[in-house]
Design brief:
By secondary structure, the chain is an alpha/beta fold. The chain has one domain. Helices cover 51% and strands 7% of the residues. Strands 1-2-4-3 form a four-stranded mixed beta sheet, covered by helices on one side. Helix 1 links the parallel strand 1 and strand 2. Helix 1 packs across helix 2 and helix 5 packs antiparallel against helix 6. The two termini are 29 Å apart. The N terminus is likely disordered.
Length: 239
């Protein structure tokens, strides 16, 4: 999960959780996601273990091969999924659990559907989720920013800033990044896990991330949330 090379501030309060999208009675089916991971490290790797345990309480999978998960310093990244190898979480990120959920979204995208390809880019099973995304306010706001930053500026300094901002927006509009951001938020609100909920609110309130609509408001996410739930039911990952 890219976080633009900067730290975030923690909120004083947790965000309220809406009743409609919350499903505390989810029953996972299939192979536990955690069984695919060899978590390396002691206490520093506990955020990874915590997130895997939360996900195990929500859904299973069945296709993920054995992967390593560990904390490792990354350049301008909070986390990274290296296909066929490992999931890496930066040791200094203050939202390690949420970043782990985000990176596990990439893992599911790559292995959970047709092994060896990104379902978000080449498949069709996520199309109802994408339709929900396209209908969201956050998507429309990102498209507005995309149009704004696509126009070149004459001042060299301002042009460099514009290009960096445009690169961020295009990155956030990519389907694989949308899926992983949405999956992490789904895990947080479906599990009611206080750590993940607090970190979700951190991203919502951060002045930079909120400007780029990194995560959704509760109302804006409701349809996306339901479509993820229905997808996992169709896959037989929960009941």
């Amino acid at each position: 999960m890219r976080i633009f090379g900067r730290n975030v501030r923690m909120p004083w309060e947790l965000h309220s959780v809406p009743v409609e999208p919350t499903r505390s009675d989810l029953a996972p089916m299939g192979t536990l996601v955690s069984r695919a991971f060899i978590v390396i490290g002691g206490v520093e790797a506990d955020p990874i273990r915590h997130t895997l345990a939360v996900i195990d309480s929500l859904h299973g999978d069945g296709k993920i091969p054995s992967l390593i998960a560990k904390r490792q310093v990354l350049k301008e990244l909070a986390g990274q999924f290296v296909a066929g190898q490992e999931v890496l979480i930066h040791p200094q990120t203050p939202i390690a659990e949420f970043v782990t959920a985000h990176e596990l979204g990439h893992v599911l995208d790559f292995y959970g559907f047709t092994t060896g390809r990104n379902e978000s880019l080449q498949g069709y099973e996520m199309m109802p989720i994408f339709d929900a995304w396209f209908a969201s306010n956050a998507y429309r706001e990102l498209q507005t920013l995309n149009t704004r930053f696509s126009e070149s500026l004459t001042d060299p300094g301002e042009e460099r800033i514009r290009q960096k901002q445009w690169d961020k927006v295009k990155y956030l509009l990519s389907r694989e990044e949308f899926w992983s951001r949405a999956y992490a938020q789904w895990v947080a609100i479906s599990s009611l896990d206080p750590i993940l909920l607090q970190q979700l609110e951190t991203l919502r309130q951060d002045p930079v991330y909120s400007r780029f609509f990194l995560q959704w408001s509760d109302d804006d996410f409701a349809r996306i949330d339901r479509e993820i739930y229905l997808l996992f039911k169709r896959k037989g990952w929960l009941r």
